[in-house]
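We emphasize that the prediction below concerns an isolated chain of 133 residues; any contacts that depend on oligomerization or on bound cofactors are therefore not represented. The input was used exactly as deposited, without trimming of termini.
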Amino acid sequence: MSTPNPLALIAELTHRCPLHCVYCSNPTELTARSEELPTEIWSRVFQEAGTLGVLQADLTGGEPLARPDILDLIRAARAAGLYVNMISSGMPLNESRLAQLVEAGLDHFQLSFQGGREHPSIASRPMSRSRPR
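Result of the prediction step, given as a token string:
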């Protein structure tokens, strides 16, 4: 009995983020920017994923827009035949930047946000780890 191919690759491109949402899975910078995977390695990962039958790349982080090479990463995922989804806070994003992302091959943009006021069931829960400010 063979194992089915995964349908999606969750690519956590960076731990950097301009926000400090209390529910984030990365409450501290787990990996310094200097230790992030470079464009070339991510491109190889996308190619290998496509070869294995993966259909979709979910670009996430931290904030994927913090990567200066984000357009190259999107292009690499599309070149590998992957449907490209980005999960982002939208910071920083404007119409021109969004048009560049789409032109590079972005298929889907998932905007993740938190309101300015605490929600009793989410934001008011104490964090288990402290984070530098």
